[in-house]
Amino acid sequence: MPTSPPPDGVARSAAVVQAEIRALLQETGGWLWGPTRAEYERLRDEWVEAVREEITTAA
Known about the structure:
elongated
């Protein structure tokens, strides 16, 4: 199962979060429902923020 989110203020890279999303999808066979869906949505939101941060840092 994916790991828990990092402590507040500690951001993980988009690549790390994406790897967790892929692991979750592989583990569930692509079926996302109930708590699995909630975990995916949390990871997706974290990934979006990480990508935004990486873009802002690169600019």
